[in-house]
Amino acid sequence: MQEPIDSRHLLERASELVDLARKAGADAADAVVVRSRSRSVSVRLGKVEGVESSESDDFSLRVFLGKRVASVSANPGFDLRTLAERAVAMAKASPEDPFACLADEADLAHDALDLGLFDPTEVESAALTDAALAAEAAALAVPGVTNSSGAGASASMGGLVLVTSHGFSGSYMATRFGRGVSAIAGEGVNMQRDYEGDSRLHFADLDDAEEIGRKAGERAVRRLNPRKADTGSGLTVIYDPRVSRGLVGHIASAINGAAIARKTSFLKDKMGQQILARGLNITDNPLIHKGPSSRPFDGEGVRGDAMVMVEDGVLQHWFLATSAARELGLKTNGRGVRGGNSVSPSSTNLALEPGDVSPEDLIKGVASGFYVTEMIGHGANLVTGEYSRGASGFWIENGELTYPVSEVTIASNMKDMFLSMVPASDIDRKYGVAAPTVLIENMTIAGK
């Protein structure tokens, strides 16, 4: 996009803000600047519908006064002393939180680490427009495609500046480039929609715009003339990688330390126990070079290491930031993410590691089942594990994908689902949550 923004001024401003908070009476404090710059273009039917550009530096100050904590936010141009004094005054009136604190000084990252997150490529609005138009034109050129829901392309840059009262001072920036299109096939009540897109940290790694458009168009056409599947139980469901990532996301939410501390996860009592089939591993690594969710330090200044969250099917770790870790009597593993004025645990580059069988062979082994390409709704209850979601895809007959299926519901309990997961050998690690094709047995399908 452009040269990295010089963060020295923001680091100095954040450091001054922390010093003023201490002078105003805070026992400890940290200041964060969340940076963002973005440019995007949207088109539909060959015409530009919108060009947007934005940039912001959002400051937040968090202060600790004994066991009390308060946070305030501001935009650039605010008076540092006033903000610091306001935060301390708020802390004095706040209820006590026995677990709120800065990360331990011994856990802080003190050396710079280049993870290849920044690409200086400058992409002008005209180039974004050309890519969006090319993707849409390629989609419309697919026989059977009758319309477009639009296409877009974007270039953005974001990052974090963090200063704490106990010695941490650091920043990092990451770029993100994207393009995508949504195509419509058929006419009237028989119309079907599908999409394709790509998002990368480095511009040169993006999929070709025409290829993105062609895939979107072909996917939309394949969905024409869908049927409803018969209602049944004990059925095999195979999740396309586009939707199997959602399954891994459910696992991540269920092993989030904040949910464990609140006792709102159906896996809260499963540490050290089998939660996936034997042989399955789930990894999380914030230090992958050019990884989509990589970071040299987390929202508290802690550098997280690569971890095997689930090893040979056995749960090994929770995702932890300092507050959640203290509540559980544990130690942070560097998974803290700033969200507004708080720090919560979250995954980084999370992956259900692939198996040995190809996705084609996985499908060939199914006499009758359902291949899911799209999920609808939010029917995954992370407290009870109950799972019931709308879905569409293709019916499997004698090991082959046959006719398209829509307007069905698939249901089970995630405890049972996770224990019967069979991953294929395919995986695309360009997403922050990555997963291969996944087979799950003994599902219930509600259709006609």
Would you give an account of this structure?
The chain is of the alpha+beta class and 448 residues long. It has 2 domains: 8-220, 2-Layer Sandwich (PmbA/TldD fold); 228-448, no CATH class. Helix content is 22%, strand content 37%. It has 9 helices and 19 strands. The strands form 4 sheets. The protein has a 6-stranded antiparallel β-sheet with strand order 3-2-1-4-5-6. Strands 7-14-15-16-19 form a 5-stranded mixed β-barrel. The protein has a 5-stranded mixed β-sheet with strand order 10-9-8-13-18, covered by helices on one side. A hairpin with a 2-residue loop joins strand 9 (307-311) and strand 10. Helix 1 crosses helix 2 and helix 3 (125-140) runs parallel beside helix 4 (209-222). The chain is globular, with a radius of gyration of 24 Å. The mean pLDDT is 95.
Q: What's the order of the H and E elements?
A: HEEEHHEEEHEHHEEEHEEEHEEEHEEE
- Mean pLDDT, as a whole number? 95
Contiguous low-pLDDT stretches (5 residues minimum) are none
Which band does the percent of strand residues land in? 35-45%
Helical residue percent band:
10-25%
Spatial ordering of strands, largest sheet: 3-2-1-4-5-6
Please report the number of helical segments: 9
This entry's quaternary arrangement is single chain
Radius of gyration in whole Å, from Cα? 24 Å
The major sheet is characterized as: 6 strands, antiparallel
Number of strands: 19
